[in-house]
């Protein structure tokens, strides 16, 4: 079974940190972009961060300087270290993989239908 499983979500106070993990089963990340999207109530789906097989990274302006994406040596697990969390970071975070990840307009449901691999999501709640 090809599957992406997210973990590490939870509740944290504003200013705190969380680390999300995305683990693949049934395939490896060697030839894919791996990234994180998030969906907050009332908002459209946002591409948060991506990392390619060669290590190239992308960050949305809203998280730049606070979040860091990385991958392990086997390229089958990707992490999203989230520091200095804000209430506005509250969302369901989804891990995704495809040859080329992209952002755009719409809800995350639309991205899940168009991208190659998509996880179940993990809730991040930031309180203040």
What do you see in this structure?
Helices cover 5% and strands 47% of the residues. The chain has one helix at residues 108-114, and strands at residues 3-7, 10-13, 18-25, 33-39, 46-51, 57-59, 67-71, 77-82, 91-98, 117-118, 122-127. The strands form two sheets. Strands 2, 4, 5, 6, 9, 10 and 11 form a seven-stranded mixed sheet that branches. Strand 4 (33-39) and strand 5 (46-51) form a beta hairpin. The protein is globular.
Keywords:
7-stranded mixed sheet; globular; single chain; mainly beta; 128 residues; 4-stranded antiparallel sheet
Care to give the gist of this entry?
The chain is mainly β and 128 residues long.
Strand and helix layout:
Elements (H helix, E strand, L loop, with lengths): L2 E5 L2 E4 L4 E8 L7 E7 L6 E6 L5 E3 L7 E5 L5 E6 L8 E8 L9 H7 L2 E2 L3 E6 L1
Parallel strand pairs: 2-11
Antiparallel strand pairs: 1-3, 3-8, 4-5, 4-9, 5-6, 7-8, 9-10, 9-11
Q: Report the sheet-strand fraction.
A: over 45%
- Quickly give the structural class: mainly beta
Unreliable stretches, pLDDT < 50, 5 or more residues? none
Distance between the termini: 40 Å
Helix content: under 10%
Instruction: Give the H and E element order.
Output: EEEEEEEEEHEE
Largest sheet: 7 strands, mixed
Mean pLDDT: 93
Radius of gyration: 13 Å
- In DSSP terms (H or I, runs of 4 or more residues), the helix count works out at 1
In one word, what is the shape? globular
- Report the strand count: 11
């Amino acid at each position: 079974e090809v599957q992406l499983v997210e973990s590490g979500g939870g509740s944290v106070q504003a200013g705190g940190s969380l680390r999300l993990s995305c683990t693949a089963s049934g395939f490896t990340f060697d030839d894919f972009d791996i990234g994180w999207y998030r969906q907050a109530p009332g908002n459209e789906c946002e591409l948060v961060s991506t990392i390619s097989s060669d290590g190239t990274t992308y960050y949305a302006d809203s998280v730049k300087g606070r979040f860091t994406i990385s991958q392990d040596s086997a390229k089958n697990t990707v992490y999203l270290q989230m520091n200095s969390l804000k209430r506005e970071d509250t969302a369901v975070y989804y891990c995704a993989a495809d040859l080329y990840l992209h952002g755009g307009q719409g809800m995350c449901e639309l991205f899940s239908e168009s991208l190659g691999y998509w996880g179940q999501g993990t809730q991040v709640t930031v309180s203040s």
